[in-house]
Design brief:
It is built from 19 helices and 19 strands. The structure holds flavin-adenine dinucleotide and NADP nicotinamide-adenine-dinucleotide phosphate.
Length: 469
């Protein structure tokens, strides 16, 4: 028997469990998937945008793994500082695979970043996704103008959520408090700003195109700004995704009214006389603007963002021009990427926010450490879609299985769950999670919506325990 603890029940944790129990070379592998939250699925539950129901439904695939007879979900077990001592894990399991993701956000390192009204996209996503650590989220949605810094897929998600109407979001599982706040939102202009050019934007084309289909928002681009990018004129040599992005932006630019706005909207700040009736909101896609300062004061909060205009440097980067532009905004969402956090007891590369590894085996001073592994974002860094984690997890599982003979020699106590309880943990087991699911479905019925997520720790833990005794 080989008993493995997988820490984290996001895609990489679940795919690791799947790879471990879905092979026959090493029979009798038992996998315990631990998560600090009482709910499984990581960013599929707490990151994937609520209006992307199809991607969210990947939870059904992950679920079948967690219901495998040799896979055991144990929620509400926080490994590390203030929680379970990782050394305890090594006493209870032959091997530990850390699949803890990238929990924090990257910083811009510019003045004003900490002003009221300046938030990380990570925090905003957690809030509308009902992450229980974000239940107290307060975002100034009385703002008329919001700037989103960054042009990756997370930036597109938060821009789209800001631009959607409450009636559209009410059909999703957004928690009731966030829905109420978004329903009262006065945001009219959402500016999504990249420091480089359109051909270097990180968003994918499907996500970009979707912005042009929102019932309540127009998209605005500036043809002259797009044209600064040499690849805008000749995109043939670009990777397919960048080429398609440029095509979409060129198409939108072709539909501008001559005042810089695609589709039906007028100028960015004021309607062009005689313009067709515009939608209530506008998403402005801006490029070649590097953020240098978030402007405002502690008393009244953010007033805008100061950018330096940039130009391509000929080798994929940009250089500053010494010309500046301010975009007025009362809400700023910094969407410049996630970052892994150090995990107590594990080596950590602060520059990349990852754990050093060789094919998934944790490296201590450059040497593989038997029994400790990593997969997912804590292994590769915070890039890649859900599916990217599958081959990554398979590689880690293969390394672990190759070490199985040595690892399985260690004698272990009979019942790891009892061991976790003795160590002060109160795991939420699979039936507890199913009770949370049932409570969320009941809440949805009560509110006349579909499933509505429970957004706070006490609510989740009460629901998990309901009827247990
Ligand atoms: C906002 C956002 C939206 C996204 N949308 C999409 C999308 O639409 N489509 C797509 O394909 N990809 C999307 N992605 C990418 C995708 O979510 C990631 O590739 C994937 O979730 C990474 O998987 P992971 O298992 O490494 O990390 P995560 O999904 O973050 O899972 C990590 C798990 O570890 C747990 N954990 C952390 N620390 C501890 C600890 N100390 N003890 C115990 N448990 C712990 C966490 O609670 C979490 O459940 C999105 C990413 C983000 C940030
Ligand atoms: N629907 C989906 O499939 C979906 C949804 C959400 C997330 N995801 C995935 O999740 C991963 C993470 O997404 P992400 O959007 O957080 O990260 P990302 O794709 O790495 O994008 C980060 C953005 O921040 C910008 N940036 C970084 N540092 C900056 C700085 N100092 N100043 C200004 N801009 C800066 C980057 O610009 P530069 O390029 O110039 O560095 C880039 O535009 C990605 O792989 C993404 O595809 C997928």
């Amino acid at each position: 028997m080989l008993r493995v603890a997988v820490i984290g029940s996001g895609p990489s944790g679940v795919y690791t469990a799947q790879a471990l129990v879905g092979q026959e070379a090493v029979p009798d592998v038992e996998v315990y998937v631990l998560d600090r939250l009482p709910c499984p699925y990581g960013l599929v539950r707490y990151g994937v945008a609520p209006d992307h129901e199809k991607i969210k439904s990947l939870q059904h695939n992950l679920r079948t793994v967690l219901e495998h007879p040799r896979v055991h979900f144990l929620g509400n077990v926080d490994v590390g500082a203030g929680g379970l001592d990782p050394r305890e894990l090594r006493r209870l399991f032959h091997a530990v695979v850390y699949c803890v993701g990238a929990a924090t956000d990257r910083h811009l390192g510019i003045p004003g970043e900490g002003l009221p009204g300046s938030h990380s996209a990570t925090g905003f996503v957690s809030w509308y996704s009902a992450h229980p650590d974000a239940a107290d989220g307060r975002f100034p949605l009385a703002a008329r103008s919001a700037v989103v810094i960054g042009v990756g897929n997370v930036a597109v998600d938060v821009a789209r959520v800001l631009a959607r109407g409450a009636d559209e979001l009410a059909r999703t599982d957004v928690p009731q408090a966030a829905l109420g706040a978004l329903a009262e939102s006065r945001v009219e202009d959402v500016w999504m700003v990249g420091r480089r050019g359109p051909s270097q934007a990180k968003f994918t084309t499907k996500e970009l195109r979707e912005l042009g289909t929102l019932p309540g928002a127009d998209v605005a681009v500036r043809p002259e700004e797009l044209a600064l990018d040499p690849a805008y004129h000749d995109s043939a040599g670009l990777p397919a995704v960048n080429r398609r992005n440029v095509d979409v932006l060129r198409d939108w630019a072709g539909k501008t009214d001559g005042a810089g706005d695609a589709g039906r909207a007028g100028r960015e700040t004021e309607r062009a006389p005689g313009a067709v009736q515009a939608k209530r909101r506008r998403i402005h896609l801006r490029f070649f603007l590097r953020p240098v300062e978030i402007i405002g004061d502690r008393g009244s909060g953010v007033r805008g963002v100061r950018f330096e205009r940039t130009v391509p440097d000929g080798s994929g980067g940009v250089t500053g021009t010494g010309q500046y532009e301010e975009i007025a905004a009362q809400l700023v969402l910094r969407s410049v990427g996630y970052k892994g956090a150090p995990q107590p007891g594990l080596p950590f590369d602060a520059a990349t926010g990852t754990v050093p590894h060789a094919e998934g085996r944790v490296l201590r001073d450059g040497v593989p450490f038997p029994g400790e592994y990593v997969a997912g974002w804590i292994k590769r860094g915070p890039t890649g879609v859900i599916g990217t984690n599958r081959p990554c997890a398979k590689q880690t599982a293969a390394a672990l299985l190759a070490d199985a003979d040595t690892l399985a020699r260690e004698p272990l106590p009979d019942d790891p769950v009892a061991g976790l309880r003795r160590a002060g943990q109160q795991p939420v087991r699979w039936p507890g999670w199913l009770r949370i699911e049932a409570a969320e479905a009941a809440l949805g019925r009560e509110l006349g919506r579909t499933t509505v997520k429970i957004a706070d720790w006490p609510g989740l833990l009460v629901a998990a325990a309901d009827g247990e005794r």
